[in-house]
User: What shape does this take?
Amino acid sequence: MRPHGRQDPARGRQVAPAPTARQPIHRRQHEQSFRSTSGINTYKSGIIGGMLRTRDVRMIITARALRTAGYGATSVLLAGMLIEDGCTPAQVSILVATAAAGSVLASLVIGAFADRWGRRRCLIISAGLMAASGIMFAACESYPMLLIAAFAGTISPSTNDNTPFSGVEQAILAQSSPDHQHTKVFTAYNLTALLAGSIGGLAAAALGHQHRASPGDLAFALYAILAVGTLAAGARLSPAVEPNHAKGKTRPAPQIAEQERLPHRVRVLAGLFAVDAFAGGLAVQTMLAWWLAYRYGATTTQLGMLFFATNVMSAVSLLAAPVLARRHGLLATMLVPHVLANLLLLCLPLAQSLAVAATLLITRHAMSKVDVPARQAFVAAIVAPVHRTAAASLTSIARSVAVCASPMAATAILAAPALRGGSMLLIAGATAIGYDAGLWTAFRNQPARRKP
Assistant: This one.
């Protein structure tokens, strides 16, 4: 066997090979390996790359958890707070739709320019606007001013994160972890968010017990504080989260142009996600709280406890996603639990009591979020790394656009007394199952559907 190295003719013993142009591996090479588009070299890039990856992923997950806790509290109390302030149901739905429209516009801008302006900077600005909107909702009762705050900030009617943050965060997570770990990383990202959202629902229930101040005002004050925490987490991100951090320079213009040319399959996927988001928007937490209060007379405390339980079940269900994706593929993980969850939603209008309705909702949420990390990993898997920010933003925008229309449709349904028995939920469930059929038809032959 040939010995490694070379022989020293003077001493007659083996010496180490001479350094080559690729040795030694400097810190700069570690960082370049960390930014490898395949993601596989992330774990091979040494201690520095590992530390950057761990810190950035933790900061993204922390930021998502903080703001979702705020969404969990405010979404339960938003409709009741506005109605107490004199708003009509139509005005409530207009405000929710306005908030969604603002998220769409912000997502469009950030999706197009985040990689040029800086992902970290965009996340910080979004968190600042979120804090400002929380302060406005806590301190102001003027409906026009609330519309402005809802449009400019990131007011959400549920713990779903169809906001400007999500596209950028998902691109950072995909970049900061190897491809085969994407489903696990996105599971952690969504699991902590849902657990935080359940705590937010519990906080809403606690605020409903006190009578010194408006529960809604206190919830939005908490929301503003959590937004500041989100901003702080974004500020701690390292330069490695940027798409091409090399010697402090950004990607050349021709490659940016290449990034903006998304494959056709991403547009198809975005359209299908819009259908699913419209269906989900008919049954978001704010609308469900409204319907349960009307149908069964549910109190604020009961609603807070119920949504605490549903969010906990959603969080627990996420743990199944990596296992299912590894065994059955991403597409099956996205579809099968989603279909079962929406079959239970179709049964909800048949419930004769709040207890039965609550049982159906909790059981539904034991399956309803399994598809989320698989969906995010699927988006990352079907495009090249250079397209990930734009693809994640486009799919997020498509969902946000659809969510804009859902509150108006739900209000139109609820405005007709004959339809308040649950037509909103029947339409939501049937539309969501139609999305499942369309997704299977369009992507059943996609190789990435089997990628864990």
Observations:
- The two ends are 40 Å apart (CA to CA).
- The CA atoms of residues 89 and 411 lie 7 Å apart.
- The longest strand covers residues 6-8.
